[in-house]
């Protein structure tokens, strides 16, 4: 961000906004929290961003030390963008902002949902009370992406990569899996619609889907008309 756009405020929060407060900047960071991506990947996962704005945000974030350009090892050698260790420290910030925003009465869960958004939502909304006593290993397949999801000892971990010997496999789009996790949609309904492929232990899959909860809505904004 240019110096003349700075808040000129000694508060650490103000300086953080100097660094990542421009429109789209935090969403670029969000998309890189699960690993490096090419420019084309970022453009696809952020369909509302223009090419000029994306290029500008990447340049700014690199200049500020939040991310850096690198190349994948052979045979790919593709240029990718990767968060620095300092940039990765933004994950809990983004997750908390996401949980706060999900409480808004005007939140639109039907809008675009990227793979990174869905996976980070699982990390954010895991409910240890609901998961009490569960010992589960699942593989989540989201297009070409694979994730190993583990629920054990009241904790949860989901990381990129296939799961070896999972109890169950859930294969669908981020929106489909979100409808199962947060919308209470029965897996059988999504299967019948051709939107989900569930293999393995069905009971384990359903137990996994029950381990996440959204925060309570904040309520209508002051002065808003009551619902019909």
From TrEMBL:
Residues 11-109 form the HTH hxlR-type domain. It holds the Pfam family Alkyl_sulf_C. One of its GO terms (molecular function) is DNA binding. Keywords: DNA-binding, Transcription, Transcription regulation. PROSITE patterns: HTH_HXLR. This is DNA-binding transcriptional regulator, HxlR family. It comes from Streptomyces aidingensis.
């Amino acid at each position: 961000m240019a110096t003349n756009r700075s808040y000129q405020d000694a508060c650490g929060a103000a300086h953080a906004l100097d660094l990542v407060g421009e429109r789209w900047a935090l969403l670029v960071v969000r998309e890189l929290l699960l690993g490096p991506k090419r420019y084309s990947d970022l453009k696809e996962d952020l369909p509302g961003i223009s090419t000029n704005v994306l290029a500008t945000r990447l340049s700014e974030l690199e200049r500020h030390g939040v991310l850096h350009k690198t190349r994948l090892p052979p045979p790919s050698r593709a240029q990718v963008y990767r968060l620095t260790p300092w940039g990765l420290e933004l994950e809990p910030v983004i997750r908390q902002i996401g949980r706060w925003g999900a409480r808004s009465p005007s939140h639109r869960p039907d809008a675009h949902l990227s793979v990174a958004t869905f996976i980070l939502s699982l990390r954010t909304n895991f409910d240890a009370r609901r998961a009490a006593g569960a010992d589960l290993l699942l593989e989540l397949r989201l297009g070409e992406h694979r994730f190993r999801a583990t629920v054990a000892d009241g904790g949860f971990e989901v990381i990129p990569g296939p799961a070896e010997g999972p109890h169950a496999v859930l294969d669908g789009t981020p929106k489909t899996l979100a409808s199962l996790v947060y919308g209470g949609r029965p897996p059988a309904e999504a299967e019948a619609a051709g939107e989900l492929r569930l293999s393995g232990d069905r009971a384990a899959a359903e137990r996994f889907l029950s381990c996440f909860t959204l925060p309570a809505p904040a309520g209508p904004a002051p002065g808003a008309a009551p619902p019909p």
